[in-house]
Design goal:
It is a single chain. This protein is of the alpha+beta class. The chain has a single domain, classed as phage-related protein like fold, CATH 3.90.1690. Helices cover about 25% and strands about 25% of the residues. The chain has seven helices and 16 strands. The strands form four sheets. Strands 1, 4, 12, 13, 14 and 15 form a six-stranded mixed β-sheet that branches. A six-stranded mixed β-sheet has the order 7-16-11-8-10-9, with helices on one face. It has a two-stranded antiparallel sheet with strand order 2-3. Strand 5 and strand 6 form a beta hairpin.
Length: about 350
């Protein structure tokens, strides 16, 4: 089998395994996948239906002969956003191939190059989603609402803003953020509360956010069930979890069988119904300042996985094109293929999710 033919036939399998890892290793994506929130649908736009009002007025029956007004309120709105579209080249220079002495060595080299390309792409996706500082992926909507460089329609600003609801500005998915304090039916904001430091009042703050957000969740949802924060903050959180009233006073312990079976990793803490994970990209660059321009630290996201969706245009889910012999790539002859993605991340119910930070 010719090397070019081998690459075209086997690289899609290598990519598929790496994509599975992308969904499995990120805790939020794993929960989305388990809850069928990976939406594989084509179309020109990402479209989500939002239930937003009281539908109609209730009438008290206190007379035998009365009129019932049939005035229907606007019940549904359609949230729309554009796709994020990307192409990443897979480049196998002939110069490197020719230095190898066997087909097996060349095959290993191709596998290594593809895995390296996919690893960098997965890292870029995660940094964009949680932090937002990957400008080459500006079309992809972020979870960090402090980002200002979004370009896809509907995702110009990230989903979760690190300020109280009444101060949240700018639209998300084409709808203005709003706190309806009059009728309590047209809210469009995420929950937020400040804490004064992990190790002091982070857990009570997180519990306040969860309890508030869960009142906006659907009846059959578990509500906020996971928290995501930086590694250093995750380590600091462990002390607060163990010392918090009702928490275990002793350190977490694992048996030999736990370690041998891999159950001791990753480190996860559960407090007040929230399971905490860390992400190495999150702190401290998740948000250099909050919307009021005040520097803040110790950021954390709180997610209801039932209200977060990863949209994929079915034909472009890390799709790999066949390799072709390019006569010149960066002044080198090379075999080149492309990974094509047409995706988008969307929070479908802002009110059921939240975040926190420590203004300094």
């Amino acid at each position: 089998m010719a090397l070019l033919e081998y690459a075209t036939m086997t690289v899609p399998d290598v990519v598929a395994k790496s994509v599975l890892s992308f969904y499995n290793k990120d805790p939020l994506f794993k929960r989305m996948r388990d809850r069928n929130k990976i939406q594989r649908s084509g179309g020109e736009r990402v479209r989500i239906i939002r239930v937003k009002s009281g539908h109609s007025d209730v009438v008290q029956i206190d007379e035998s002969n009365m009129s019932v007004p049939l005035n229907k309120k606007e019940t549904l709105s359609q949230l729309e956003g554009d796709w994020a579209r990307y192409i990443k080249p897979l480049i196998i220079p002939h110069f490197d191939q020719n230095r190898m002495t066997s087909k097996e060595e060349k095959k290993r080299y191709i596998d290594t190059m593809v895995k390296a390309a996919m690893t960098s792409l997965k890292n870029d996706f995660q940094r964009r989603l949680y932090v937002g500082n990957i400008t080459k992926l500006r079309g992809l909507g972020t979870f960090n609402g402090n980002i200002t460089d979004g370009t896809s329609l509907g995702f110009e600003r990230g989903a979760l803003q690190f300020v109280v609801p009444g101060s949240q500005t700018t639209a998300y998915l084409g709808e203005s953020r709003n706190q309806d304090t009059t009728n309590e039916v047209d809210h469009w904001y995420n929950q937020y509360a400040e804490h004064t430091g992990i190790g002091t009042d982070f857990l009570p703050t997180a519990e306040t956010i969860k309890i508030t957000a869960d009142t906006f969740a659907e009846d059959d949802e578990e509500g906020i069930s996971m928290g995501l924060l930086g590694i250093a903050d995750h380590v600091a959180l462990s002390d607060e979890v163990r010392s918090y009233p009702g928490g275990g006073a002793s350190a977490l312990q694992y048996s030999v069988s736990d370690i041998e079976s891999g159950k001791a990793h990753p480190t996860v803490y559960i407090a007040n119904g929230v399971q905490y994970y860390s992400n190495r990209w999150i702190n401290p660059t998740v948000a250099s300042s909050n919307m009021a321009g005040v520097a803040s630290l110790e950021h954390a996201f709180f997610f209801n996985p039932n209200t977060v969706e990863w949209w994929v245009n079915a034909g472009a889910d890390f799709q790999v094109t066949p390799f072709k012999d390019h006569l010149e790539t960066s002044n080198q002859d090379a075999d080149v293929a492309y990974i094509i993605c047409e995706v988008q991340a969307a929070v479908t119910n802002l009110m059921a999710n939240g975040c926190t930070s420590n203004p300094t």
